[in-house]
Structure formats: C-alpha cells, structure tokens
Amino acid sequence: MPDLRDLYQELILEHSKNPRNFREMEAANCKAEGYNPLCGDHYTVFINIADDAIRDISFQGSGCAISKASASMMSQALKNKTVAEANELFDKFHQIVTGQETDNAESLGKLAVFAGVAGFPTRIKCATLSWHTLQAALQGKQVASTE
Amino acid sequence: MSSVAADVRNHENVSAGFDVHKVRADFPILGRRVHDLPLVYLDNAATSQKPQAVIDAILHYYAFDNANIHRGVHLLSESATDAYEAARRTVQRFLNAEDRSEIIFVRGATEAINLVAQTYGRAHVGAGDEIVISAMEHHSNIVPWQMLCEERGARLRVAPINDDGELLLDQFESLLNSKTKLVAITHVSNALGTVNPIGHIIEMAHRRNVPVLVDGAQAVPHLAVDVRALDCDFYAFSGHKIYGPTGVGVLYGKRHLLEAMPPYQGGGDMIRSVTFEKTIYNQLPYKFEAGTPHIAGVIALGAALDYLTGIGLDAVLTYERNLLAYGTEALKSVPGLRLIGTAKEKAGVLSFVIEGIHPHDIGTILDQQGIAIRTGHHCAQPLMQRFGIPATARASFAVYNTAAEIDTLAAGIHKLKEVFA
To answer: Which among B360, B377, B384 is the nearest to A64, CB-wise?
Structure first.
C-alpha cells in the first residue's frame, strides 16, 4: 500500500517550495507551454540550445507540488545535457513514474525520488507534464497537453 | 465544559433528532473502507451514493420485470411500461408539475439543456438575438448556448457575480433587453454552493417575456423544488445527483412550450406513424423520448425520489442546513484556508483553497486518509478565472454525511498542512 511519504518526500516538497531555475529566459531559442486541463497545472519551459546541447533551461508557471518539483528537478538534471541525453532521461523518467521499470532508478540520480508517483496513478501526469512540455519545445511545438 | 462534551453537544445540535445513522445503514457503500480506513465520502456534488432501495429497484427490474416498454402486448411489457410511467408520475409529483406530459426523461441535466438549446433554441434564436447566462454556470449550461449562438449568429451575455459568489441582480436585470430570447441559470452552483433567487430572476425575465431554463442538478437533492411556484419554463436535473442511477435525468418544460418545439432525436417511439413520404410525430412526452430509454434507470430514479420523500424532505433539508453550518465553521477556523463561495444562501458545498498548497495535493493527501473530495475546476473554468484561481478543493454533502465526518475532514486538513509546513 503506497504511503504518502513515498509521494511527498522531503526533496519533492523542498523543490516545490523553492523551485530551481524558476524564471523567464530572454535568451531562449526554444519554448513551449504545457497544460494539464484536469487540475490546472500550467507551465512554460524555456530552453537555450547551442551545439545540440541544453545550455540553459528554466520554467515559469503554477501547479501542484508534484508538477512544480518535477519541473525544478528536471531543469537541474538537464543543464548541459545533449538533446539525445535529455530524450533518454525522459524515457527513463517516464518509465519509473509509471512503475514500468525500477532498475533505472540508479541512473536517474535525484530524479529517482519520483518513483513513488507510480503508486498514485492519478498524479502521474503531474510528474510528467514539464517533461512533455520540454519535448514539445525540443520538437518545435508550441503547446503540450497531458490529454 | 470539556472539549469532548462540547463536541458531542455540537454533533447533537447538528442532527437535532434526525437519525442519520439509520439513513447511513440504507447505503451499503458507506460501510466500505478505502486505504484501509473508513470511507468519508464528501464528493456528493460529483455523484451521490445509492440506497439499497434504488439498487434493489434495478436488480428487481432485470430479474423480474425486464421487457421493452410501450409497444408490447405481453404481460412483462405491460408491467415494465406501468413501472416506467409510474416513475414519470413520481417525478411529476416531486416537482409539482401540472401534467405528466411535461416530464421528459433524458440522460441527465446536460442532455436536457442540449435538448432545449437544439429544439427551442434553434426555433427561436436568430441572428442578433441574445441569451443570458451567469458567471457561475457549469460548462453544461454554457457550452450548449455557445454552440447555439455560434450557429445562429446570436450573442451570449454573462451576468456577473460578486466576490461572495452571489449574482448581481441589478446587473443581471440590465442585461435583459428586447433581443433577449432566453435566460439559462443555475439554481445551486456546483462550485460555490450559491443558491440563486430563482423565483425573483424568473419574475424579472417574464416581465420582459423572456423564458427561463433552470439548471437544477445541484438543487433537487438539497432544496424543495416546485416548478409551478417558481413558474420556470424549463427545469433540468440529473438522477445520479439525487441518489438515483447515472444515465437518467429529467427535463421539465411547460406544456405549451414543449408542444411547439420540434423533436430532438428522431427514431422509434417519438413517432405516431411513419411512411417514406411523411412521418407524424408522437404527442408529449414521447415526442422527446426516441429509442429505448434507460428503463431500469428511470424506475430506479422513481425509487430514489420515493426514498427521499419517505425520509421526509423537510427533515432532510433542515439536517443538511445544520451540517453545512457546522462544516463552514469547522473550515473557517483553519488558518490559511479561504472559503470560495460565501453567499448568504448556500446549499451542499464547501469549496476552499489553502495558502501555498495546490488543491490537487490537498485531494491526494485527504484521499490517503479515506476522505473523498473533489479538486479541480469543477467544470466551471470561467468561474475559476473570475476568482483568479486554477482550482479549488470541494467538499460536498448529502443526507448521509455526519458532523463526525466533518471533524475527520478538518483533522485531515490540519494533517496535510503539517506535510507542507
């Protein structure tokens, strides 16, 4: 039986209260908006890509603790990663939050803390929203939605 | 007085002779556990739980009385028809409608409103005409009118509300003009709990010959509704909000209006005769009941209304009023909690936000404590926008909720504040 502490871990709460890279980015050359119509989570992800790598990443918006912490930790994890590495990280992240793959937890570093989301299926989209938005930005799409 | 004694005293004030535990015993689902805790079901505005009498009505129909209605000459068909039509009379009496032909069975309040928009609306609303709704409407009382306006080149006007969630009646009245063809208004707001002064609104509209459709989905479980006293032109409600099954609802319409409306859906039962040259439509109410309906659902809806009137509607309403007052006080005393929807007249609903904690997180943490509430925009996105918030957390009550459950909710909220401290 999943415990609330599996979902609302210290690290997640901390990031939701003090999100990192929580700012607009004027120098962004990629950006996209992400929206979860079911609960009102709404974020914009800004990226500056140079030489196929994410030189800078930031986000703005509002939403629940899970979505905000996920966006914050994503922004930390992806700085200076290549686009290919970012996509790979997204796949692994998606797998652990949907409970499909628990072996990758190690390689995700701090992001592994979201493994608990798998026990709360109604919250999976909160955790993945910013990642879907990132993907949309990388693919040059303007808007992502969890629907 | 010790706090335990004060608690009991307060609980006694809430129930004041109403035997809620006897009522609870009628609802089998209330005995179940969620996350290994007793279920505290406070999401009644989303859907209500069902008493054994309603569950039995459905079982009994399929086990003993199932047959298609209206056309058969065999015994089962006759008894199914009798049961179906008896439910129609039950609804007629419940709403105090003049005639049973004014009761149309549909899938729910949403379909009822769409029916009016697509038949009455299409026939009477033209380019440049106006339809008035309010800022607190549910999407099902907004979108059908938007669709109609777009189709007909008409204009949707929105009557504003104040920060307490009350309709500004002067401003509403000023929206009524010679181009207004219909007013569509909610009786009780699902997101705010506001009870609108429907009688007064209808009077204002009728002075200008404007008919009024009332969305009564959240009203019928919590208020006594008399369509003749209100003099409303249309009244819509859903069975599943008033202890009946999903998939069934009612459109009440004044006879002369329904007579003049073209049919909604074409098919069997709504016809008197069909040839390829010409089809003659059936009389009311069948003109608007094409195809085989949710027969079991309609019969069970009748059982639900009988159940409620069996307890005594006055007793139910008084109890619920006390419960709402108790709940309001309990939540008001939580630091950082703001009630959304603070109208003087309210029913059934406590919507709130908590500083620094998103409703979605409130919902998950309460769920883990066995408490079911709803979080989100409650199908009222324009309303959320009006209050400048993305969502609220909403606790909504029914006849089987107790003061003790409200205490559990309050304790649950304190606990979640600890998680986020």
So the answer is: B360
